[in-house]
Amino acid sequence: MDIEHHIKGIIGKIDPDSSRLEETPARVAKVYGESFSGYGVDISSVVSKFYDSGMDDLIILKNISFESHCEHHLVPIIGTASVGYVPQGKIVGASKLARIVDCFARRLQLQERMTMEIAQALESVLEVKGAAVYLEAEHFCISHRGVKKPESKFVTRYFSGILKSDPNLRREFLESVQKN
Ligand SMILES: [Zn+2]
Fold first, then answer.
1. pTM confidence score
2. How far apart are CA 7 and CA 59, in angstroms?
3. Are 122 and 76 in contact (CB under 8 A)?
4. How remote is the CA of residue 45 from the centroid of ligand 1, in Å?
5. How far is the CA of 137 from the centre of ligand 1 (A)?
6. How far apart are the CA of 148 and the centre of ligand 1, in A?
7. Which of 101, 113, 121, 166 is surrounded by the fewest CB atoms within 10 Å?
C-alpha cells in the first residue's frame, strides 16, 4: 500500500467530511517523498569529487539550515547544523557538506543520532583527521505540544579524532559556531 492510500485513511478518520479533500492525499505523499528522500542515499555518491589540498587546519561550514522529523511523533525538527573537519589531504566543496546534512535530516530522526551520523559520514568518505558536528534545533513535539516550550532549543555535539582529543581545537570549533 502506498503512502497516498494511507493518508486518505487518516484524513477520513480526522474529518468526517473529507470528500472535499480529494487531492490532499496525493499532495501529502509528494511532501513525504521530499521530506524522507534521505533513505537509501549512498554518501559516497553524494561526495564523489575531492580536491587535493595542503590544507591541514580546521574547516567549518556553519549555520546550515535543516528540516527533519522526529521519529517519535512525526513532527518537524527545524534547526541549524555546523560541520567542521580537519582534513588529511582531501577536501570537498562546501555545498557537499550541506548535502551530507540533508541526507540524514531527510529521514525520521533522533537529533543525537543524526549528529553522530553526519560526523561518521565525514570520517568515512573524507578520511579526516577529526570531525565535529554541532546541531541546534527546535522540536515541534516539545515546542507545540506536550510541555509546550516554544523557545527551547535542543543542542547536540559530536567530536571525533583530533577534534575530540585536542581541547584547543574543540574550543575553537565551538567558539566559531556559537558566534553569529
Ligand atoms: Zn518527538
1. 0.92
2. 43
3. no
4. 30
5. 12
6. 12
7. 113
